[in-house]
Design goal:
The strands form three sheets. This protein has a five-stranded parallel beta sheet with strand order 2-1-3-4-5, with helices on both faces. Strands 6-7-8-9 form a four-stranded antiparallel beta sheet, with helices on one face. By secondary structure, it is an alpha/beta fold.
């Protein structure tokens, strides 16, 4: 049974989500603010977090950043604001999805299921990009019997993006995940490596594409066959 964290200072929202999710077979952990949510995460792991953006103490954005640094779980942000700048801020802090209040509970369930499928794909050692396979264990990309050799950092960057197809990664996050927190270079390193990957896989545009989200970062999209 999957466990879901709900962090929202609105008791009505927590009650609604608790009712809907328990009916669907989820276990629910609740928090009234970001600090309490962080404590709940430290006490026991969860499979997905639903966070209100505006909460007392630690905001949903800050908590999302903390989760990205320490946990490998899907995150959905809830907000009463629909401006594009607010959504940009959410994705820049590492959220996987973004839902505006008021929302239909069934839509939330659909999005949760999609995220669980995406993260389930990432749990395997081999990631499929249609006819291409990214083998994280052997650090190689294959097309059938053909092996495509990549420099280490290019491979690690491709694998990081391919683990979570459709998820937007900001440049700073990719630096931390691929090059490490102590890396002293700047974020343009990511741009250079993305350019090289695009050139290297120029003939595989029908299999996947690395998209640029201006001012934020990159995401990998797998072509539907």
């Amino acid at each position: 049974m999957k466990k879901v964290l709900i962090a929202d200072d609105d008791a009505h929202i927590r009650t609604l989500l608790r009712t809907v999710l328990t009916q669907e077979g989820y276990r629910v952990v609740e928090a009234r603010d970001g600090d309490e949510a962080a404590a709940r995460l430290a006490e026991s792991p969860v499979d997905l977090a639903i966070l209100d953006v505006m909460m007392p103490g630690r905001s949903g954005l800050d908590l999302c950043t903390d989760i990205r640094a320490s946990y490998d779980i899907p995150v959905i942000l809830l907000t009463a604001r629909e401006q594009l700048t607010d959504k940009e801020a959410g994705y820049a802090h590492g959220t996987d999805d973004y839902i505006t209040k008021p929302f239909e509970p069934r839509e939330l369930l659909f999005r949760m299921n999609a995220l669980f499928r995406r993260y389930s794909l990432a749990s395997s050692e081999k990631i499929r990009l249609n006819r291409l396979t990214v083998d994280r264990k052997n650090h190689e990309v294959t097309d059938g019997d053909a092996v495509l050799l990549l420099p280490l950092k290019e491979f690690e960057l491709l694998a990081q993006l391919a683990e979570y197809p459709g998820r937007l990664f900001e440049r700073g996050e990719l630096i931390r995940l691929v090059w490490g927190a102590d890396y002293e270079g700047d974020e343009r390193t990511v741009d250079v490596h993305i350019k090289r990957l695009r050139q290297r896989f120029a003939d595989y545009g029908d299999e996947f594409a690395i998209r640029t989200v201006r001012g934020i970062g990159y995401k990998l999209e797998v072509a539907r066959k």
